[in-house]
Write a structure and sequence with these properties.
This protein is mainly alpha-helical. Helices cover 42% and strands 5% of the residues. It has three helices and two strands; from the N terminus they run E-H-E-H-H. The chain is globular, with a radius of gyration of 14 Å. The protein starts with a strand and ends with a helix. The mean pLDDT is 85.
């Protein structure tokens, strides 16, 4: 149910993740990013964390609002 991905599962840098997301975000999107260390799989999520910090700052400054998926789903079910 996501509409934008940052390709953070294979991203070489936080800047790469941020570039992939900003190229597609228009508003009302669900952005797919991965959390946790998952060190058992050899995956380091520190670039994802850095990219999220930058993305939140960028879009909050631009007037975007961040909501949880359940909150978004509840507002979509309410009659207009």
């Amino acid at each position: 149910m996501w509409s934008v991905t940052g390709y953070d599962w294979s991203a070489p840098s936080a800047e790469y993740i941020e570039k992939k997301v900003t190229a597609r975000v228009r508003g009302g999107d669900v952005i797919l990013l991965h959390d946790g260390g998952h060190q058992a799989f050899g995956t380091d999520r520190s670039n994802t964390v850095k990219a999220v910090d930058a993305l939140v700052a960028r879009y909050r400054d631009a007037g975007f609002e961040f909501v949880t998926v359940p909150s978004m789903m509840n507002s979509a079910r309410r009659p207009a």
